[in-house]
Amino acid sequence: MLESIWLALTFFLPVPGCPTGYLGPGGIGDLGKYPNCTGGAAGYIDRLLLGDDHLYQHPSSNVLYHTKVAYDPEGILGTINSIVMAFLGVQGLISVAFTKISENEGFIPVNKNLWSISYVTTLSSFAFFILFILYPVVDVKGLWTGAPFFYPGMNSILVYVGHEVFHNYFPFQWRLQDNQSHKEHLIQNVVATAVWVLIAYILYKKKIFWKI
Ligand SMILES: *[C@@H]1O[C@H](CO)[C@@H](O)[C@H](O)[C@H]1NC(C)=O
Cα separation of 126 and 176, whole Å? Predict the structure, then answer.
């Protein structure tokens, strides 16, 4: 609902003297055509509801684009999206509440076949958590290149298509002693993944990449 409000106001609210849906800096930006349109609907709503005197007077757009109007980077519309951002950050807590930290006993258990909301919040909170660990280690500090996961990442389409075509064949699959055994399935999946990482590594070395 919040995001719908933000999208509707940002792209459909008529702003006097400005193009509807304007996202630019105003001033000398856009060849100086809309000097007082800084921030589009976001700037307009703040100036209308809060008044010029209650807005931040030295926005960063002033430096590069020589804007004259006040513009608040912590304005009303931006606050809507900062709430959405905080929401993304608390997905782990939402999962804790829905699942009661249990495998199957919660109010809404994690269920991939239903794409249950707890499945979505749990998986995306894991993704955020992994990004939170990897971003400083790989991108900022350069302590790890991301290998060997880097190689399948460079050929993700090829690995995906290859898996779809060959997943019924050895060495990606073989007859299991006990088809119900999680342990045997896990071993098979780890081996299949390792083989694809190895294939991706060889293709990387040979500079073969599939892209769209
Ligand atoms: C922009 O606003 C200033 C006052 O803040 C005014 O003098 C100027 O005429 C306005 N420019 C346009 C194009 O509306």
Answer: 30
Note whether 187 and 161 are same-domain residues.
yes
Judgement on whether residues 174 and 112 belong to the same structural domain of the protein: no
Residue to probe by mutation, ligand 1, list 22, 33, 36, most atoms within 8 Å of CB? 36
The verdict on 54 and 93 lying in the same domain is no
* pLDDT for the residue 89: 80
Q: What is the span of the domain harbouring residue 134?
A: 87-140
172 lies in the same domain as 200: yes
Residue where one domain finishes, among candidates 73, 95, 121: 73
Count of helix runs (H) and strand runs (E) in the chain: 9, 0
Number of domains in the chain: 3
In 55-149, which residue ranges form alpha helices assigned H by DSSP? 61-65, 76-89, 91-99, 117-134
Ligand 1, atom nearest to 17 Cα: 14
Across the chain, the runs of DSSP E, i.e. the strands, are: none
Residue 88's pLDDT is 82
Atom of ligand 1 nearest to the CA of 36: 1
> Could you give phi then psi for residue 208, rounded to 5 degrees?
-105, 120
Ligand 1 mean position to 187 CA, how many Å?
Answer: 69
Same domain assignment for residues 118 and 168: no
Residue 35 Cβ contacting ligand 1 at under 6 Å: yes
C-beta of 163 in contact with ligand 1 (< 6 A): no
pLDDT in tens, 11-25: 999 999 999 999 999
188 lines ligand 1 (CB under 6 A): no
